[in-house]
Amino acid sequence: MKISYNWLSDFVTWKEKDPAIIADRLTASVGEVEEVIVQGEHLKGCCVGKILSLSKHPNADRLSLCEVKTDQGTKKVVCGGSNLRSGMRVAFAHVGARVRWHGTEMVTLEKTKIRGEESEGMICAASELELSSRFPLLPGQDDHTIIDLGDGDEDIGTSLTDHLELTDVVFHIDNHAITHRPDLFSHIGFARECVALGLAIWKKEKKTKPQTFPKNPPPFTFVLTEKKLVPRYCACTLSVAGLGETPLWMKQRLEATGWRSINLPIDITNYVFMETGMPLHSFDASDIHGTVRMRTATEGESITTLDEVQRKLCPGALIMEDDQGIFDLLGIMGGLRGSTKETTRSIWLHSAIVDPANTRRTVIAMGHRTDAATVYEKDVPPVMAKIGFLRALELFLTLMPEAALTSKLIEWGTDGKSKPIPFSHKDAEKHLGMPVSDATVKKVLTDLGFKVTKTAVTAPLWRINDIEGSHDIVEEVGRIVGFDRITPVLPDATIAPPPRDKRLHAFRDDLKEEGFLEIVPISLVSPQLISACKMDPNEAYSILNPIGEELSLMQTSVLPRLLEHAGKNLLQADQTLKTFTCTHVFNRREGEWMECGIFMANRKETSLVMNPFLKIRQLLVDEFSGVGSTVAINASEKVPPFGHAGRSADLLIDGKTVGILCELHPDVNKAFDLPARSAVALLDVTTLLELPKKPAIFSPIAEFPAITYDLTVTLDSSKSAEKLISKIRGSSPLLTSVIAADLYDGKPLESGKYNLTLRCTYQAKDRTLTEEEVKKEHERVEKLVMA
């Protein structure tokens, strides 16, 4: 957004005239000023010169020798311009000036010789002085075309800056800083801010006569099918004798703020847009026929816009059409058919407030953004429709040749009504943390256009969309008074960090030490991914405005993303893929909780001892025992849909279920191209962290050595080994430990059988055991196993 200092001067008298100070105050209180552009600053050392004589260069066919009259006397110059003539006034750059050499890099001019002839300066083309917008190339011209300032002696030796009236200062405002303020996309809006900041005072407002409209109806009727999309509208027709010529002052201001002069009707609408913040459009009324309908587009419709590009309309785009078809993409860009041109003699001027959400959806869907759309999507207040419309009419009737109104005013909707918000200076003091007098609050808000009483504040109509409560009013007072005036105060509360439960961090570190890779996938999933895990996507929360269907649901479990990663990366693992992830999950029935998923799969068939289910089981037993908890692993009472029916277990601590361990259902393995014995554990971390901490109790290291014996027994896979191990553990007072040392289920064992190798450790607390007494104890254990 570019704001002109000279343009602001139409409304205010400056108290502060230094552009740098103005920019700093605006940055601190309104919006970031990215750049202060001083017009003509790059033209230092350039003046209006006159070619006194012109002759061919003796050593170059395409160069000329010129004598140029300047403010520093007559200069000899070698020039390659294609349109030079004697008596021509030109833009002359002295030695020491900086120019863009042939429109490319910037160089500092020096006195030099070109093909043996001395040259003191440069006669410039528009591209070399960055004046291409002021002097556009005409058909048949090229980059060697010199700026032609005409013949005569006027302004010879005058600085080029003064001659071209490049005396403005332009403030380039960052649009992102004012996205919630549609009133600031205008010069009037920034003039108001400058007054409130004490940088300027208002000039006396010029009184304008109210427009008197004839009673004639326009030559077409209006039909609005979507009233919510166009809540406020003003329009009329007027006749003109011709397009006329845009005055220099208007061209200069449009150019300063980034606009290109096209023709007077379009320039007027752009000028009013920049002045008031209200996008407008003028149509050639003779190109509109029959009934004008404002409706939303359907699939397959298109429009040729002003830039002569045929664009396919997205369904829902707000358009205007007559009996001959669509002629306007309302709120974004007009159509080529209804545009004003040299033959235009009847103009239809309209000012429409359009729905901001519809405008934004259309811009995104069509990939076509314009200045009007950028402002419309910020929710232009209804009051601006008529303000901008009447200002444009004033300029049309003043600047257009023989312009006259030819129809009555067509309008609908209201300007809205502001509700008083309870507020006093005490509210400002409370929330800002500094003393603010009642007089200061009243002056600040009054300067910004608010109506202030002792107990309430009413926002002006141009602020009704962004002033919603007392917190917004506090912000207005704070930013104008200056947030830098708030005295820094250290907080009264302690800054000691709150106690942290480090169990989850320790658990993750342990998993990494065991060779598990932590993944951090995105928490949004697709219905198809949830269904592939045999889970119900209807239990997931939907995203209101998803990027696409693949990211349309909040994850109900970490399992879908865990398995998706495994399916894509299993072949990258050497032998075994081991991954885990811990994050929040969401369910319509149970709300939100944190879940940790642990996955393991072998690329190839391996021995039973490397079974993923058993490896994860042992990992969890060891991990929980390390923090003083004993985890019970029981056959699942209710097998989850993604789990194998006979290979699923509930994980319990102190009788409370904290997770599930299972091999995956064959259908799930198939969906993700995983091997048959893939296993996963899902832990409810939220429930785990709610359990009381139990310090691990360590036994002292025994003073006397231990003796171990291995015992191998063949078992049926349908029977649990846990009962056998529990039975053995209590069979001898010298038996201190019984663990499963190995598992085997290969040949020559029958199908459904497996060998379990138990490692029995014998130890006494008061002596060193002999081999004979340990053998006796172990024989008792063997008899117990064989019984």
Quick recap of the structure?
With 787 residues, the chain is an alpha+beta fold.
CATH fold assignment of the largest domain: Phenylalanyl-tRNA Synthetase, Chain B, domain 3
Q: Using only CA atoms, what is the Rg?
A: 41 Å
Total helix count?
20
Q: Stretches where pLDDT falls below 50 for ≥5 residues? A: none
- Average pLDDT score: 91
Q: Quickly name the level 1 CATH class of the largest domain.
A: Alpha Beta
How far from one another are the termini? 91 Å
Explain the overall architecture.
Helix 11 crosses helix 12. The chain has 6 domains: 73 residues, Phenylalanyl-tRNA Synthetase, Chain B, domain 1; 123 residues, Nucleic acid-binding proteins (OB fold (Dihydrolipoamide Acetyltransferase, E2P)), CATH 2.40.50.140; 192 residues, Phenylalanyl-tRNA Synthetase, Chain B, domain 3, CATH 3.50.40.10; 61 residues, Phenylalanyl-tRNA Synthetase, Chain B, domain 1 (2-Layer Sandwich); 188 residues, BirA Bifunctional Protein, domain 2, CATH 3.30.930; 80 residues, Alpha-Beta Plaits (2-Layer Sandwich). Helices cover 25% and strands 27% of the residues. The longest helix is centred in the middle third of the chain and has 17 residues. Strands 30-33-34-38-37-36-35 form a 7-stranded mixed β-sheet, sandwiched between helices. Strands 6-5-4-7-12 form a 5-stranded antiparallel β-sheet. The chain has a 5-stranded mixed β-sheet with strand order 15-18-21-22-23. The protein is elongated, with a radius of gyration of 41 Å. It contains 20 helices and 41 strands. The chain starts with a strand and ends with a helix.
